[in-house]
Each structure stands twice: as structure tokens, then as C-alpha cells.
Amino acid sequence: MPIGNARHRRWGARLAAGLACGTLANAFQMPFFWTVPGPVPPSFFASHLGVIVAIHLLLAALLADRCDDRPWALAALALPIALALWPSVHAEAGTAGVWVLFAATAGVCALGVLPLPGRGAPLIAVAVGAALGGTMVGPQLARAQTEVAAAPSVAACAIAVGILLLAARLPRGGCVPRPPVTVPIAVLAVAAAIFLGRVAPSADLPRPPMAMPRPSLPPAVLIVLDTVRVDHLQLYGYERDTMPRLNRFAREQAVVIDGAVANSPHSLPTHASLFTGLTPPRHGAQFPSIADPSPPAYAYPLARHVPTLAGLLSARGYWTVGVLANGGALAPDFGLDRGFAVYDASLDLNFAMKLETPWRAASEWSEPLAMLSRVPLFSDAEFFEYGVPYRRAARISDRAISLIDAAGDHPFFLFVNYFDAHSPYNPPASGRDAFPGRLAGRSRLGLDHRTIMRINSGDRTLAPEERAHLVALYDAELRYLDRHLGRLLDHLQRHPRWNEMLVIVTSDHGEAFGEHRFVEHGMNLYGELTRVPLIVKPGVGTPGAPPTPSRLSRIVESVDLFPIVLAHAGLGALPRIDGRAWGLGREHARTWVRVQQRSVSWRPERLARNLRAIQRDGWKLIEWSTGRLELYDLENDPGETRDLAARNPERRDALRLLLGKPARVSRNAPRRGASETPETLERLRALGYLR
């Protein structure tokens, strides 16, 4: 059958038009890849390009006539699919991989336009369309793995357009649209490629300042495992080995502290205490009181006059860098970024793309689209995965490792925040069934918001099978987190100054699984929320450090980590702070919580209260702002199930006196939280903090 057959001409022309349209759609979406900072993983490109290929094929099917030459049609459809797989296959080759991608694409184009016997028109058309699509992904691939500029992509795009124009003029070609159609497509494609080359940022990683480093300053690392419950670690007696790598690190090289207490069951107040050495009433970064007449949308930021750990270390000569998954509660709006040279609170790339592109309109169909994640082409980067707006542990560890390498010989303070154990629980599919108990047919995310609201309002209790379901998912998240935390710890141990390095691993609060008729966190001050793991690997010469490995039964609050890091860096403790290094001299622990006002509306009589708690000598008192008091004997009732306030008034009153008067809350407090940007509010909603 001759190449110039009229049916083939129509088929090729319409297929080329469909592929060109798909390519332009790809080109105009690509700028959104730069809405978030940081390198973009090759798997993300492969996944996104797979989506674009699907658009190409759909358009081709709608625009093309039937073709009797089935082998050529199959070959044509195989080309863009192969192109979609190239980034994930060749990206590890770095610069070479980028050039291999361009060379292979150009080679296919050249073979397609040569008037060889038996060369079919559909193959020519698809080769040109695939070449254009490939050039669009070029600068993205270069940004992910190398520092190659976008110029090669622009050149390759121009070559592909030239081939397109040449093919239109070949004798007996007729396989692509004639010039009235081809020229506008070519102009738009070249314009898009040039635009991409101009807006593409540098792939360089942040670097420490050029000033001479002070080699006498020992590195320090603070790792916060968001929402990790202490009694779900085998290190603290759990029957499941959820975090074996962390357990091994703790037992072989660290000090394990059994009495660690978070200063709040919320992320923002506890992190602020870690960074300032002050309790929540003093640093101010917490939710408004239930009596606040003009509260911020979420919370108040850190008081401006309060010195921060990063600021003090930066002035000392440290390169202060932070990489965090909780980009909502720890967003820069709340002041925790003060003093950091790098404060990377980026969202997950998939989620950022969905916010900035037409994929956002498909959010209501997240569950049906999630079925596509079972297809290998779409599964690698989990583009359609629902409920993961934050960066998973794998991405956080990758970024932290790259910052450690970028530091070189410069002393650094590294803050790392992992968010995987936070609800909604969504362990990766490969490890979702790591532990038994997950209910078949139930949401892999745990419980829906309405059910959570009913439980926390007291309208119903958590059924045993529901609790087993939640715990199975939560423990699977811990196992996944442990794998990538282990990669970070392994990398730190290979650092030349490992022996001098201080490494702290802790959590900001725990999680409830039906205890006291609550789920999740932030609603009360019982032990499942306030007891946290604390594992410290001191450096050689860290002041006051116990020998390692060892185990201490000692009350240590979150605020006590602030002076530990300062002493390690050779700085004395600031006056008038609440923290005491290693908890030395501390006889009691105190915690606070202000319940978010949006939660109070669920059941005011149950939730409309601020809480304070104090524990000493094995006893714990919880005071409600309504005047109610609860008293628990922690030695005989560690689960805090028997309130002894009425039966032991002497102990109750003694602890109440020690707790002191509550801090005064001004009803005319300025709206310091008014600085919350729309982007931060969007993040808070995505992470479940706002509904």
C-alpha cells in the first residue's frame, strides 16, 4: 500500500494534530512544576508524563480515522508510552541521561521522516508528536538530576518543529497537517519552550555562607517524629516492632529517657517550646482561648521578642537548616522559621500540582482516580494518591541528606520534621498490611471526619474492630517512617564529625485510639497524648550528658531540649527560660492545651474548656478552665482511668497550689494571627487542621 494513500494521509494528519494538542496542553502545565521549591523526583515526571500520554492517546483516538494497517498503528501508540518510561529509566544517569533522552527522541524523528520503503505515515506523525512531548519534559528532568540548563530542551524543540515542517513538504508525505495548521502549532510550541527556559530556576542546592567556618563548633540535629506515640515503640514496651532501626540506634548509641513529656498535645505550641525553651503561655504560639472574641483563623504566632534556637545558633556561626513535612502548623506565618537560613516547608509535589493546575477540579473524584495508582505507569509517584498533601518520609530524608552534604565542612544545625504518623493514616500500598487488624473494604485513611467528630463529641465510642483498623494503619506508617529515618541516621553516622554530633529524636505529641472516648489529638491532656519518646545521642564533650548507651527515668519536658542544644554549641542557657538541660532539678512536668474553637461547637459541654496539667511524684492533676479537677495515681493507674480528686483532696489541693494561677488572657488581645496567608490556610485545610 503506497505511503501517500489518502486514508493514511487523513489518519496521520489527525493523529499529529491530536498529539500536537496534547503536547501544548503539557507545555502550558509545565510551569506549575515550579510552584514549589526543591528538586523534583524523576518518578514524579514519569507519572505526570504518563498522564499527558493518556491525553495524547485519547485525543488521537478521537481525531483519527480507522486504520487498516494495524501494525503501524500499534507501533505509533507504543512510542509515546516508551517516552513516558524514559525519565524513570535514564534519570539515574544524570547529565548523560538527559542527553540520551534528547538523542533517542531526535533519532526516532529522523527515522520517521526518511522516505524508506514500508515506513508508514502514522509512525511519522507519532514520532514528531512524541518528540515535541519529550522536549517539554527535558528541562524538568535536568532540574531533578543535574544542573543542565534548559537550553538543550529549547534546541531540541526547535529541531522537532523543523522536522515537522520538513515532513509536511516531503514528496508524497502528506502525513502531517499542511502549513496553515502546522505553522501555528510550531509557533506555540517554540514559544512555550522558550518560556520554560526563562522561568526555570537554578537547580543549585542552598549553600552555607562563604565566611570561614568554625570547625570547633560541633554539629547538632533535632528530629521530631510528628504524632508518634511513645507506647507504640518496642523500645518503650510495645509488642510490635514498629521502628526497628530507631530501636537499634537508641540501644547502641543513645540515652533513652522514659519520663519525657510534651508541653502541649498540638504541633505548633510544642515546636515553639522546643525552639524557645519557654512554655506555651510564655511564647504565645498557641490557639486562642475559648473566650477570645476575635481569634485568628488558626493560631497565634510566636511572640516577636522571643529569641529562637535557630537564631542563637546562626549568630554563633552555625548554618541553620530545616526540612519539615508539616507545612501547615509549622508554616513560616507562625514565626518558627526565624533564624533559619533554610526553612523548607514545601508541600508534596503531587498535591502542589493539584492545587495549581486543572487537576484540582478533579479533587472530588479522588477515590475513583486513586484506582489509577494501581497501574504501574501511575503508581511510582502516587500522583493520584489521596490524602497525602505532605512530603512522605522518603522525600524528607532525601532533602535532609542533600542539605547535610551541601554543608560540607561548615558546622550545621539541622531540624527535621516527619509527618507520616499523623492522621489521616495512609501508609504506602507496599506496606499497608505490615501489621494485622486492617478491615477489608474500610477506608485506608482511617476514619472519616464525621465519625471522628461524633466520637470526640461523645455521641459514640470507637468500636474494637475500628480501633484495630486504626492501629494497624498507624503502625504501618511507623514502619515506613522507620525505614527512611534509618537512611538519615545511617548517613549521619558516616559524617566525619559523627562522634561530636548531638542527635535528638523526639515527638511533639502522641495520638488517641479511643482512650477516654477520644481519637486523634489536641482535645485533652491524658498520657496517650502528652508522653513522648526522647532519644538523645550526645556528642563527645556535650555538657551534662549521661554515658551512652543508657536509660534514664527522669521527667524531661520539651522545653528542656533548648538548653541541651545551646550547651552543646558552647552557649550558656538564657536567663528566665523554663527549660532545664536534661531535666536536672526538675521535680514536676506541666502541659497546656487550648481546644480549637471550631471543635468546641461540636459539643460545648464536653470540649469548651482550656486545660492545664501537672505531674509530680507519680501523681497527675488536670485542671479545667471551668473549675473541674481530675487526679490520677500514675503508678497504679498509668492509663488515667480512675479519677481520685474527690477521694484524695489533700493531694489534689497540693498539686493545685503547685500549678499556680492560670495566665491571664486578655479579651482585647490583638489579632496577631491575622498574618496567616491564604496559602497557609489552604495547607492547614489540606492537612486536616481546618475543616
Question: Can you tag this structure with a few keywords?
Answer:
691 residues, alpha/beta, Alkaline Phosphatase, subunit A, eight-stranded mixed β-sheet, four-stranded antiparallel β-sheet, 14 strands, 42% helix
Which blocks of ≥5 consecutive residues have pLDDT under 50? Answer: 17-39, 57-95, 108-161, 163-203, 356-367, 375-387, 665-674
CATH topology of the largest domain: Alkaline Phosphatase, subunit A
**Radius of gyration of CA atoms, rounded to a whole number:** 29 Å
- Main beta sheet, described? 8 strands, mixed
The residue-averaged pLDDT reads: 74
Structural class: alpha/beta
Strand content: 5-15%
Number of helices: 23
State the end-to-end CA separation: 63 Å
Number of domains: 2
CATH architecture of the largest domain: 3-Layer(aba) Sandwich
Shape: globular
Can you tell me the CATH class of the largest domain?
A: Alpha Beta
Number of strands: 14
Q: Your description of this structure?
A:
By secondary structure, this protein is of the alpha/beta class. It contains 23 helices and 14 strands. An 8-stranded mixed beta sheet has the order 4-3-5-1-6-9-2-10, with helices on both faces. Strands 11-12-13-14 form a 4-stranded antiparallel beta sheet, with helices on one face. A hairpin with a 4-residue loop joins strand 13 and strand 14.
Short description:
The protein has 691 residues and is α/β, with parallel strands linked by helices. Helix 15 packs parallel to helix 17. The chain has 23 helices and 14 strands.
Question: What secondary-structure arrangement, pairings included, does this model have?
Answer:
Layout: H1 6-29, H2 42-63, H3 70-90, H4 95-113, H5 121-145, H6 151-169, H7 179-199, E1 220-225, H8 244-253, E2 255-261, H9 267-276, H10 280-283, H11 309-316, E3 319-324, E4 342-344, H12 349-356, H13 366-370, H14 376-379, H15 393-407, E5 412-418, H16 449-456, H17 464-493, E6 502-506, E7 512-513, E8 519-520, H18 527-530, E9 534-537, E10 550-557, H19 561-568, E11 588-594, H20 597-600, H21 604-607, E12 610-616, E13 619-624, E14 629-633, H22 649-659, H23 678-686
Parallel strand pairs: 1-5, 1-6, 2-10, 3-4, 3-5
Antiparallel strand pairs: 2-9, 6-9, 7-8, 11-12, 12-13, 13-14
